[in-house]
Amino acid sequence: MYSVDIMVMEHDNILRLIHVVKKVCCQLIEGAKVNDEDFRKMIEFIRKYADKHHHGKEEEILFAEMTNHLGAMGTKLIQHGMLVEHDLGRRFIMDLETALNQYKENPNVNDKLEIVANAVGYANLLIRHIEKENQVIYPFAQRSLESSILESVDERVKVFEEDATTQKVQDKYLEILKELEEKYN
């Protein structure tokens, strides 16, 4: 299924960033200085690529169809599972940004701890979240939604992707990812 293949590939890219995040956090624990600019790039990637681009397709298209057509089980999996985790991830990133802002204003060990705690909290959440989507949610959708709905999801995801390609969303954020990987791997 086109849309699931795209989303799984995006998960791979998000996990690549998660690897960088954890690497940077380990360096901070070992005494490295906080690189504000690199953390801002990570936050931008997370907000624009992982959240707006990737979660946009899930929330606006696939998850909406699952909630609309798969009854109580679809609603429970999506509204009480995946969407809650999306919101929790957003909270980690808001708190990370707050800690970065405070650290930039007045560098101190407490805010450095908050930077690490929120970055690693986000990373660990996403690792488990992605595994659930890849292993449970997407296969459940493919098994349970009618073929006409799956075709509609694919068509809408193609349009979403074409719009993003026109705006060079994928190119921009995959370039940021490549730059961060080269620096930290």
From TrEMBL:
This is Hemerythrin domain-containing protein. Residues 4-141 form the Hemerythrin-like domain. It comes from the Bacteria. Signal peptide: none annotated. GO terms for cellular component: plasma membrane.
